[in-house]
Amino acid sequence: MKAVDYFAKTIRVITVPALTSGCAMTLLWLSDTVIYRGLLDYVMVMLGLTVVPLLSYGFTAAVPKLRTQGRETQRKYAMYFSAAGYLLAFAYGLASRATGPYKVITGTYVISIVLLLVLNKAMHFKASGHACSTAGPLVAMGYFLGGWYIPAGLGVCALVMWASIEQKQHRFWELMTGSAVSGLSFLCLVFLI
User: What is the pTM of this model?
Assistant: First the structure.
C-alpha cells in the first residue's frame, strides 16, 4: 500500500461518523455552552450519536452471515443503527425538555439520516453519510463556538472529501450532497427551534 493510500484510509477511519460526532459533542460539552443542561444530556447525546451507531460494527462482525457479506452490508447496518441512535437522542431531548440547541443538533441528525435513506435507498443516489456526519457536527461547532472552529472544520471536511475520493468510496457530488444534507438541515432547524 502506498503512503498516500494509507494516509487516506487513516483519515476515513479516524473520521468515522460516530467518532466525529462524539468528538464534536465532547468539545461542545467542554466549551461550557448552553447546549447541555447537565451530565445526563451529554451522556444521552453520546449514547445516541456515538455508542449506538458504533454498535453496528460489532453487530455485523459478530453475526457470521453478515460478516461475509462485505462493506455494503456493514454500511447498511451502520445507517440503521445510526437512525436508531439518532432517534433515541432526539426523543430524549423532546421528553426531557432539553435546550433548543440540543434539539437542533439531535434533530439535524434525524432529518439528515432520513434524507440520506431517501437519497440512497429510494433514489439510488449514493450521498455520502461520511461527509454528512462530518459536515454536520462541524457546522454546529462553527455556529455555537465560532472562531477557529470554522476554518478547522473546513479543513477537516476537505480532508475527508479528499480521502473518500482517493479511496474511491464516493464521487465529488456524492460528497457535496452528503455535506449539504446536514449543513442545510442544521441551518433550517436553527431558524425553526
Answer: 0.91
